Amino acid sequence: MQQFSSINLRSFFLALVPVFGIYLVLPGFTLDIIILLILFISDLLFKRKIVFNYKIILLFSVLFFCNFFSFIFSRTSIQSIFINNSIQMIFFAVLLCYFIQQEVNSVFIKTLHILGVFASVFVLFQFVAFWVFNQSITLFLPLNTSVEDLDLLISISYGRPNSIFLEPAHFAIFILPLLYNSLVEKKYSLTAIYLLGLIFSTSTTGFAILIVILVYHFVFQMRNLKFLLLLAVLSVPFFFLSDFYDLLFSSNLDKLGADSIEDNNRLFGNFPLIFKMDIFNWFFGLGHNQMSNFFSNYGIFVGNYSNSYLMIFFSFGLIGFLSLIIYVVDLYKLNINKGYFIVFLLVLLSDQILFNRNFFYLVSCIYFIRNTNLDASTNQYSLKVFTREDDLQA
Question: Which member of 23, 54, 58, 168 lies 3.0 to 4.6 Å from 203 by CB, making a disulfide possible if both were Cys?
Fold first, then answer.
């Protein structure tokens, strides 16, 4: 029964967080949180020593203080939103700062790659089903739960595959660390599968970050300038497949344009709203997910959404923003291989992932996938799976 040991189960379920996190079991509680709570309570009952990551505790303590202070002195905050979001923040913080300090083994990365291959192949299947057979196909676990934000699934109805996630961007967020890991480990067959999945998902997030990590790996890490020549060679077929090229990339390239970046709510579209906040809100924020209600009182109708950097400023002010920056700097120092950190940094810039499964997953990749042994002759890292003792010695 060794395969059902606590470390195997922990490694397996931590890898499934990005997928299980889309299934809403109870109000405010998704399936990943429920499973991690069960594992956490089990450890509390049977383990002698419980260790938490104090840096994550400090980050969330500051954010919770700003959220509470903003609610007390705000005239626009809604009490029910404050209570519900505070509870979610507490559970998320406890689980993150606990499981980040636990030991995982190779089951973690193996589970991720198996899931990654399946998700990528399903993207190709969705693409063919829609564009060849005019069929919109989705796949979700047969669970008696609600899928969070079900309306986002409409992307496949106009040809943008979402795989087993809610939208193409979420698939891209999941697959990017795995694509980078397959590059580092020279598993190029996996790289090809993930690359095709990203391309056919038509995710702007995936498209942009993919370019950055490819350049980082081949030019800055491997110092292989032949990669630039390879890109030039690979671009030649696009001149003969212009219609196919437009189908896959035109919308992504349009969204990467300067005007679109300025208007896109995922990037800087909500930036001008900062100047409509008063001095108090600048320091302590509007409260978590109180942004929409605050601006509606001034006749401005926006959602509780922006990229993570802007969202943390809107929610927790300058104090919260600086706290996140300090934590991000600490993450940069944590893993010698910066590829996973680059993905995390760019996803924060392009999406709102605070306190959700994607934040948990990307931070887990930085902590748990350590490529520490660099071969000077090949500039190649060897894979090391993180253990709690490694962190305590760091």
Answer: 168
